[in-house]
Specification:
Elements: E1 8-13, H1 17-23, E2 30-34, H2 44-57, E3 64-68, H3 77-84, E4 91-94, H4 100-116, E5 125-130, H5 133-137, H6 139-144, E6 149-154, H7 156-163, H8 175-188, E7 191-194, H9 203-216, E8 220-223, H10 229-235, H11 240-258, E9 264-266, E10 269-271, H12 273-289
Parallel strand pairs: 1-2, 1-8, 2-3, 3-4, 4-5, 5-6, 6-7, 7-8
Antiparallel strand pairs: 9-10
Bound molecules: coenzyme A (COA) and magnesium ion (MG).
């Protein structure tokens, strides 16, 4: 199955009718319709009903529809699932996961509800917030425990609350987590998506910290404000220069192979078969991003 493009994943508080309405016209690849920490306690029920209504009545076009539920240990989590599955979101984002048990619990409830509504089995995917120390230590088990798993999403604010660390521009405090996330995601064949950048006025900081995770291998980043969508989409899309280089690599390698050679130098850089695969991936992403 072709993987979805998840360059930018916009959080939209489910309690805000205005932001829900606005989100439809924005360029984010995916929307997280949030029932958890973006929603005040007094608004939980209203947000849940509003999000269900939006899922049933609004045409979100190509955008992936993700709903972040409240954790099942809260008083809201079960009702969130029960209500939201009826709206057939593409994915459910589970907060504050510590290990595979929480994933599997959601998986089995979703399976039961899909069955009840006569929806195709395993249609609804699961995404995991990586925002507790235990989640980081259990990443391989979490990423591999459910066939519904489709992405790991870093949540830096909760994570730093738990560790007592601080979010810095250089991100040294998060590097261990970020690296583990890419590794676990690649082994499981799912996506790694970064935490939002929390200062919506600092585009330079957003760009710098996003390029860093792009270079680590991340697939995309969560965003919290419309102004963050364009820079993040751009960073996770191949540039014209990268596209042209990928085309050159493929062509040069084909020519070398025709002459019986498995390696060549292109503009001084060694090219082997693996670089052709990388180039093909660049072109695939560019095609989907176009
Ligand atoms: N989704 C959709 N629309 C959004 C949006 C979002 N996340 N954030 C802002 N907008 C809209 C605003 O409603 C406003 O619309 P308008 O032009 O029609 O009036 C426009 O974009 C500009 O917004 P702005 O006035 O600059 O920001 P704000 O002060 O209204 O909101 C935040 C700032 C940070 C409170 C808001 O962006 C937000 O709530 N973001 C999501 C936070 C969240 O979900 N956190 C939980 C996960 S970390
Ligand atoms: Mg959180």
């Amino acid at each position: 199955m072709e993987r979805k493009l998840r360059r930018s994943v916009l959080y939209v508080p489910g309690s805000s009718e205005k932001m829900l309405g606005k989100s439809i016209g924005l360029d984010a690849d995916a929307l997280v319709l949030d029932l958890e920490d973006g929603v005040a306690l007094s608004q939980k029920e209203e947000a849940r009903n509003q999000v269900l209504d939006a899922l049933k009545t609004v045409d979100f076009g190509d955008k992936e529809k993700i709903v972040r539920i409240n954790g099942l240990i809260t008083e809201f989590g079960h009702a969130d699932l029960e209500t939201i599955v009826e709206g057939r979101p593409d994915s459910i984002l589970i907060p504050k996961v510590n290990g595979p048990a929480e994933m599997l619990e959601v998986d089995s409830i979703v399976a039961h509800l899909e069955n009840k509504h006569d929806f195709p089995q395993d249609e609804i995917k699961l995404m995991v917030m990586v925002e507790t120390p235990a989640a980081v230590l259990n990443l391989p088990a979490i990423a591999n425990c459910s066939a519904r798993a489709t992405a790991l999403c870093f949540g830096a604010a909760d994570f730093m609350k738990e560790t007592g660390g601080r979010i810095t521009r250089g991100r040294s405090e998060a590097l261990f987590v970020l690296t583990q996330m890419v590794l676990a995601a690649r082994v499981a064949g799912i996506d790694a998506i970064d935490t939002p950048y929390f200062n919506i006025k600092d585009e330079e900081g957003l760009v710098e910290t996003t390029e860093m995770v792009r270079d680590l291998g991340f697939d995309g980043r969560c965003v919290i404000h419309p102004s963050q969508i364009e820079p993040v989409n751009r960073i996770f899309s191949p540039s014209q220069e990268e596209i042209e280089y990928a085309q050159k690599v493929i062509k040069a390698y084909q020519e070398a192979e025709a002459l019986g050679r498995g390696t060549i130098a292109l503009e001084g850089e060694l090219i082997e078969a693996l670089h052709v695969e990388v180039a093909q991936r660049v072109l695939r992403i560019a095609e989907r991003a176009a």
